Amino acid sequence: MNPSNPNFAAEVAASFAQQQIMNLIGARLSLVEPGAVEITLPYREDLTQQDRYLHAGIVTTIADSACGYAAFTLMPAGSRVLAVEFKVNLLRPARAPEFVARAEVIKPGRTLTVVRADVFGIEESDRQLVATMQGTMMCIANKS
């Protein structure tokens, strides 16, 4: 996929840095490519539910942000991105030392972009799929 913004990676990083929720939960960008983004999150007890699995809301949060930024990589310079809908399937309890949400654009569009994300629990070399998301992201054009 060809990005229309040659500075897409810098704009993704700058936007991500403004998301206080990502800082709060300790998530970081680990990959930014045209049409694809990965967000990595270490397991933390304070992000778990009653059975000590990573809370579904946290799993959804990293998947949503990965989807948004994957779409954002293909948007024009100065744009903003906003989720307009998504569906999440939680496939197994989320317990691992680290989690990675990998999102890839399925169909880019001028206004709406369809994206898919998979969230994996990572333990050493083992990756287990814990959730999958499909979402639609909206490009909010720069009004200059």
Can you tell me about this structure?
Strand 4 and strand 5 (112-123) form a beta hairpin. Strands 1-2-4-5-6-3 form a six-stranded antiparallel beta sheet. It is α+β, with helices and mostly antiparallel strands and 144 residues long. It has three helices and six strands. The radius of gyration is 15 Å and the shape is elongated.
Short description:
This protein is α+β, with helices and mostly antiparallel strands and 144 residues long.
Helices and strands, with pairings:
Layout: H1 8-18, H2 20-25, E1 28-33, E2 36-42, H3 56-72, E3 80-90, E4 98-107, E5 112-123, E6 126-140
Antiparallel strand pairs: 1-2, 2-4, 3-6, 4-5, 5-6
- Strand percentage lies at 35-45%
* CATH homology superfamily: Hotdog Thioesterase
User: What about the largest sheet?
Assistant: 6 strands, antiparallel
- Overall pLDDT metric: 96
CATH class: Alpha Beta
Radius of gyration (CA) equals 15 Å
Specify the number of helices: 3
**Strand/helix succession:** HHEEHEEEE
